[in-house]
Automatic annotation (TrEMBL):
This is GDP-L-fucose synthase. Its EC number is 1.1.1.271. HAMAP family: GDP_fucose_synth. InterPro entries: Epimerase_deHydtase, GDP_fucose/colitose_synth, NAD(P)-bd_dom_sf. PANTHER family: GDP-L-FUCOSE SYNTHASE. It comes from Nocardioides aestuarii.
Length: 324
């Protein structure tokens, strides 16, 4: 139904609504678009526009009539939060997505990018994880509610394409890191937690740091500025119903990553591993061949990206948000 649409450079003058523009991903996309000369960016904090309020979302969209929408607003959290509040992760994310996409449909939004997450893929998916493995097996139970909401979002994009012919797309990023991350001790993902721990250890001149698990699981990390660049690339060069994985295509062991964080913080002590704590899945790596076919590969290496993130963390230490 999207016959006849050819991806093309985004119009720098067109109104673009970035939902979630104060979050880690949304703010990176805002910076990237601003840097490329987009003059008509629109965003609203959740305190001004609660995206679970359907009427308010329709009014906002009718007022601004965006030509493009990036849907980077979501209720996001680590394993603990996902496992403790599955109802909120399912219900709030479904409401946000349905409201934004229905209101965008009403306005005939030309290009919409929906952001999901690699947790949509089955727990035991073959590595590296290809887009085709979606809906081929059981999800990781600790974040299944969040994953189901994100899968529903992909389906809504596909259904809108089929029924209404709008060339909307979905992107599924791997683990992200960078400026604006959540560094809370209880709610944060593995990388910000490592940065916080090693930074404190360096400051307090500790002899050693102890991390959970064996350090052997392999994980992939993408800098959020690379992620923003990939999103804009997809909007300008990709059209298709299938979600596109966004990652570096390279993974490293948690021990290697911890070593890079120690280096970036200047921590000189030893690292110990508490093997009585669970390791999680042995490997999580996205197959990024579809993204490469679309003409994009990541540019920011882990060592360089981590050094910049530690610098950012130290500069913003006092004002960091602490979402539990
Ligand atoms: N971070 C990662 O590693 C990662 C990895 C893969 C995928 N992603 C995906 O990328 C997207 C953005 O993630 P993120 O890391 O940028 O999350 P984030 O930093 O927590 O930002 C989420 C944004 O959503 C907004 N939001 C949440 N609930 C809202 C509501 N009811 N009404 C209005 N706005 C609301 C928040 O607005 P306020 O700030 O105004 O409250 C916040 O700015 C998500 O879809 C996530 O699944 C992230």
């Amino acid at each position: 139904m999207t016959d006849g649409f050819t991806p093309q450079p985004l119009d720098r003058e067109a109104t673009t609504y970035i939902a979630g523009h104060r979050g880690m991903v949304g703010s990176a996309i805002w910076r990237a678009m601003e840097g490329r000369g987009h003059r008509s960016l629109v965003g609203a904090a959740s305190s001004d526009l609660d995206l679970t309020d359907r009427g308010a979302v329709f009014d906002f969209m009718a007022q601004h009539k965006p030509r493009y929408v990036v849907l980077a607003a979501a209720k996001v959290g680590g394993i603990l939060a996902n496992n403790t509040y599955p109802h909120d992760f399912l219900s709030k994310n479904l409401q946000i997505q349905v409201n934004v996409m229905d209101a965008a449909l009403e306005q005939g939004v030309e290009r919409l990018l929906f952001l999901g997450s690699s947790c949509i893929y089955p727990k035991l998916a073959e590595q590296p994880i290809h887009e085709d493995s979606l809906l081929t097996g059981h999800l990781e139970p600790t974040n299944d509610a969040y994953a189901i909401a994100k899968i529903a979002g992909i389906l809504q994009v596909q259904a809108t394409r089929r029924q209404h012919g709008l060339p909307w797309i979905s992107a599924m990023p791997t683990n992200l890191y960078g400026p604006g991350d959540n560094f809370s001790p209880t709610g944060s993902h593995v990388l910000p937690a490592l940065i916080r721990r090693y930074d404190e250890a360096q400051r307090d001149e500790l002899d050693s740091v102890t991390n959970w698990g064996s350090g052997t699981p392999r994980r992939e990390f993408l800098h959020v500025d690379d992620m923003a660049d990939a999103c804009l690339h997809l909007l300008e060069h990709y059209d298709g119903p299938q979600q596109v994985n966004v990652g570096t295509g390279k993974d490293a062991t948690i021990a290697e990553i911890a070593g890079l964080v120690a280096e970036a913080t200047g921590f000189q002590g030893e690292t110990h591993w508490d093997t009585s704590k669970p390791d999680g899945t042995p490997q999580k790596l996205l197959d990024v061949s579809k993204l490469a076919e679309a003409g994009w590969t990541s540019r920011i290496g882990l060592r360089e990206g981590l050094a910049a993130t530690v610098e950012w963390y130290r500069e913003h230490g006092d004002s960091l948000r602490e979402v539990g």
